[in-house]
Amino acid sequence: MNNGVIMQLEDLKWAGDCMGVIESKINECLQEFEIDSIQLKRIADVFCQEIERGLKKEKSSFKMLKSYLQLPNGEEKGHYLALDFGGTNLRILLIALLGQGRFKVIKKVTAPLITESYNYITNNVCAEELFDFIAELIRKVTDDEYRYFLGHTFSFPSEQSALNHARLIVWTKEFAVQGVEGKDVNALLSDALIRKGRSNIIPVAVINDTVATILAAAYKDDCVHIGSICGTGHNTAYLESYDGKRCPMIINLESGNFSHLRLNTFDKILDQQSEKKGEQVFEKMVAGKYLGRLLVLVLKELGMLKQEIVLTSKDLSEIIQDSSPNYRKTKEIFFAQIEDTFTEMEYSYIVEIAKRIIRRSARLVTAGYIGIIQHMDFNFNNKHHIAIDGSLYEKMPGYAQLIQKTFVELLGDEKAKNIKVILENQGSGIGGAIAAAIFNEGRLDSDRIIMPSES
Length: 455
Ligand code: BGC
Description:
The chain has helices at 3-32, 37-55, 127-141, 185-195, 209-218, 265-272, 281-286, 288-301, 313-320, 328-335, 344-376, 391-395, 399-416, 427-444; strands at 65-66, 77-85, 89-99, 102-112, 148-154, 158-162, 165-168, 201-207, 224-230, 234-240, 249-252, 384-389, 419-423. By secondary structure, it is an alpha/beta fold. It folds into two domains: 33-62 and 224-382 and 391-424, Hexokinase, domain 1 (3-Layer(aba) Sandwich); 70-208 and 427-442, 2-Layer Sandwich (Nucleotidyltransferase, domain 5). The chain is globular, with a radius of gyration of 24 Å.
């Protein structure tokens, strides 16, 4: 053999070794996102124990926040305003509740909280500026000659002392507006409405979006006892029966703060770089706000990305279903932010890693639901309908199916049959209106709302 041929063979061997190294690094990364059935069952058990600890007021990673609400009876009627505040878009709705689970949206306005010209979630903004912005939007859908009861869906951990008083404990989802933590958000809203000349709008209820989701779904389905959000953020609420010793009440777990989990290398980096380190650990592993960030961190670790880019969960949904020739869609997503290009092989890795991150999210979320049902009905004897709202559940390809499959994997066919997952994609708005109606009807029939003294 001449020298040239020897060189080529050596080059090939070197290239082959490199591929081997990359593949094994990729496999390691993929493995970091794998959680098997045994681990998931253990997570479900700990979820259940944490609820029970929280109910006994022992140390728990769940905040167990009271809503002062029972389930609706489906006959709530009338016109109510709903404010949905908690994600990247603000929504105001005027809703006619028609009874028997029926409703009509009469008016609706939405506004993003971040555009190129403003940002209402950063710490450069103060409470008054944020609530004035919200009140201004409410002003646009209301008239000053009518009186409106408003249900405020405020999707952050808040301690309630009554249906209409909620104090923000801590911002989540990277919100950082100054002067809101520790304050009564309904008072901030009322003051802003007065500043904007709208004292005819009375915020009568504040609820979490998980609570709103249960209310909206239970308005038409008696078997709904769990409401959850799989969107920008993640959280779940359920109906606590107190074993019949007290009036049942919907409890917001703030399950995104579940902390008994083994974090992988990327979870740890993500947490370190987040606004609130060490908090909302479960949420950072499963919620839409963070899944794209996890993918970026993996690609950086693999040396495939040198610079910072932002991938949204919408980007991820396009990446995992990219069946276009030569990964055209995925290329476009990356090209919008970087000039480097990847090989076909690298694109296939990106798709695989994204799938794994999403799969872990759906599996963890399901383990959480199982833990909650274990607490409510240890043997899964009854029907449990779980209402879910949020873009991750609604729009991420395969996410809903993964949840379904995980139920069967962890519970077996028989028990899994008693569980039905329902998409409740207008829950945050409708639930706000139902809460306002329950308040209004409670003024006439005091059994309808739970007073602080009874809780
Ligand atoms: C908040 C919860 C909320 C969830 C979904 C979390 O970040 O802490 O209160 O329910 O996001 O919006």
